[in-house]
Amino acid sequence: MARKRRTSRNYKLVNANTKNMGSSGSQILLRKFDKVDAQGLSAWLHGVKVNYLMSDVTGGGDSNANFGFIFYLTTHQSWNDDYIISSNASSQMSGSVWLPAKRSIKTNAIPDSANDLYLGM
């Protein structure tokens, strides 16, 4: 009988956010990723799945308006093309997108912002 390999446990963390996007059309920071357990030295983030639902496109009930969503993972808290590590787009009123991250988040990184990871839209 083959031995079962021991691997470290993976934990799934689910958070729910509701954001009012407003009418400006500018980028919005949705979340900053940190380690769940502050006592551990590092954590691994495999990816982020974003489920979204648009309640009203134009405010007047017209669901035929042209619109789209771009979700992105970045290492900088403001929009900058140089820091984007993953992105995905959709033109549906509801759905889900997968953003692969495949990176570790470490304690006491040098510089302090080296392991920052943000989800934006």
Q: So what's the overall shape?
A: globular
- Strand fraction equals 35-45%
The SSE order reads EEEEEE
Q: Calculate the mean pLDDT score and round it.
A: 75
pLDDT < 50 stretches: none
**Strand order within the widest beta sheet:** 1-6-3-4
How many strands in all?
Answer: 6
How many helices? 0
Report the sheet with the most strands, covering strand number, pairing sense and barrel closure.
4 strands, antiparallel
Structural class of the helices, strands and pairings?
mainly beta
Residue share in helices?
under 10%
- Rg is 18 Å
Distance between the amino and carboxyl termini: 50 Å
Describe the structure.
- This protein has a domain at 29-54 and 66-120.
- 0% of the residues lie in helices and 39% in strands.
- The protein has strands spanning 29-33, 42-53, 69-74, 84-90, 94-106, 117-120.
- The radius of gyration is 18 Å and the shape is globular.
- The chain is mainly β and 121 residues long.
Quick synopsis:
This protein is mainly beta. It contains no helices and six strands. It has strands at 29-33, 42-53, 69-74, 84-90, 94-106, 117-120.
Write the layout of secondary structure elements.
Blueprint: E1 29-33, E2 42-53, E3 69-74, E4 84-90, E5 94-106, E6 117-120
Antiparallel strand pairs: 1-6, 2-5, 3-4, 3-6
Q: Which key terms come to mind for this protein?
A:
single chain; 121 residues; mainly beta; 6 strands; globular
